[in-house]
Amino acid sequence: MSASYPLPCRTLLGGSHLIPLTEPPTQTAQAAAPQWITDDSLFHYQRCARRAYLDLHGDRAMMDPPSDYLQKIQQDSAEHRAAVLEDYVPLQRPIYAHGDWHAAAQATIALMASGADHIVGGVLVTPITETCFLVSRPDLLIKQGGWSIWGAWQYAPVDIKLGKKPKLDYQIVAAFHAEVLAAVQGTPPHESWLALRDDRYHSVDLAQQLPKLREILTACLRDLTYPEPPEVFIAHSRCDLCHWFTQCYGEARQTQHISLLPGVTSARYTHLQALGLTTVRALAATPSAQLANFPGFGEAVAEKLVHQAQATLYNRAIARTEPTHNTFVLPPDALPSAEVELYFDIEAAPDFDLIYLHGVLVVDHRHQTQRFHALLAEHVDQERQAWESFLELVLDYPHAPIYHFCPYEAQTVRKLTHHYSSLNLTDLHRLLSRFVDIHDRVTTAVTLPVESYALKHIARWMGFDWRDHEANGAQSICWYNDWLMTGDRAYLEAILRYNEDDCHATYHVKRWLTEFADPLWSAPAASLKVSG
Ligand code: SF4
Q1: Atom 8, ligand 1: which residue's CA is nearest?
Q2: pLDDT per residue over 226-284, tens digit each?
Q3: Within 10 A of 441 (CB to CB), how many other CB atoms are there?
Q4: N or C: which end of the chain has fewer CB within 10 A?
Q5: Is 54 in the pocket of ligand 1 (CB under 6 A)?
Q6: Are residues 375 and 511 in the same domain?
Q7: DSSP state of 70
Q8: Domain ends where: 224, 248, 273?
Q9: Residues 95-110: tens digit of each pLDDT
């Protein structure tokens, strides 16, 4: 089977081959059926070994359908790729039946052997055992001067990525293309490139990245050939967009996996495992001093983790206290209340570098009223108008605290002020001094039985719910794009509803925290308050 492929050469790319061909991946290797280890497998492996495993062996019927946001990213990627490829006409593309890697590899080799200048959609394959093949699919192969098995030319790979920075995982995949290409054309390419969204080409330092690639690839091959998938580990930052999320999350919930506790990172999990602390119950019963000396912990993190396990186990909020005085950490002036309070949330369209919505809920305690103001740029040239309307509104209430969730709103106000020269420095500082980050106050003051300290998780635990259950920040980006493309106001209305609910949720959290803190402020000696 492998006879039709150019065999890997041990003298390529610095002399040592990436895979020890004499060592099959593992004694417990799965099937004898061909294994195709693709650049995608390697890319995902670097972020989550389980993802790469399930992509290869999982039941595809269990995969989640792509969200609107994921589809948008895929669409943006395709557009970026098409824009870069416009510079390389004429392009030649290997023709083969979908999924037939052998045919794809032969068609690509035929184009390379014929000396095609630019090959798009090429497939490079090299065997590493009788049944295991590496499959590299660089977006573009560019003919260059030099030597190869076909004559006085060779190729260099280009990967076209949507990111703005040459992240390590991109570079490792670029090194993978170079390594497989070296085996196919009989000589290492001079370079491997990344074409990123910043309109620049980044040449990957192969001397630096190839040793890392070999290490990662060896581990990847080992893990992908085990009979069982790697253990589930939920990290919302990487899992939320993964098509195995429902399956993994269900398994994590069923086993009460402690990766569901905020603060349990994979590095900390390694230490917890070594101590046998793999359940919420076990962690909840551990004195925090036992964890404090491990790297990446420290006293504050250790205490927070143990509290997190206790809060989750008993479904209770736990007040945080000063270690020395045993008093509640949050002073009353950190959570100001006033006759009029403003709750503020921004929506942005990153594709257009545009802040298109300033949502402000005005809560007037004197008149018992709540009024939502949507200061909206319906079109991309109306950012200034929306921003100035926002300033007018907040300056109408010069003493009202402005509650928001996370630093983004304050950062954006600073940015827009400079961009539009709207306020002098004194007035900007006066305005920003009214901002109160409720996320900061919650995480400082209390440990909650939540899986994440995102607004949705916190507010839901406190009893608030959004009218639209599917809405989220990523979805609102899609909705704004859809509004611009179709002019259908239903998209705008969905955004406004979501933004208004975010403002109400922030208000809900503020009220909850005030009620929670109130008895602790009046009895500062109290060290622990339980709620829920
Ligand atoms: S949901 Fe998370 S743990 Fe599961 S495969 Fe995807 S990234 Fe990995």
Answers
A1: 51
A2: 899 999 999 988 998 999 999 999 999 998 899 999 999 999 999 999 989 988 999 99
A3: 19
A4: N
A5: yes
A6: yes
A7: H
A8: 224
A9: 999 889 999 999 999 9
Check pocket membership of 242 for ligand 1, CB cut-off 6 A: yes
Ligand 1 within 6 A of CB of 52: no
Same structural domain, 275 and 391 = no
Contact 112, 4 (CB under 8 A): no
Query: What is the CA(161)–ligand 1 centre distance, in A?
Result: 22
CATH at 304: 1.10.150
Q: Please, are residues 291 and 280 in contact by the beta-carbon 8 Å criterion?
A: no
Domain count of the fold of the chain: 3
CA distance 127 to 334: 63
- 45 CB within 6 A, ligand 1: no
Q: Is the CB of 5 under 6 A from ligand 1?
A: no
pLDDT in tens, 515-530: 999 999 886 554 444 4
CA distances from 425 to 171, 418, 421, 428, 429 (A): 42, 9, 10, 5, 6
Strand order in the sheet with 140-144: 118-120, 140-144, 154-160, 193-195, 201-203
Contact 452, 418 (CB under 8 A): no
Distance CA 253, CA 50 (A): 17
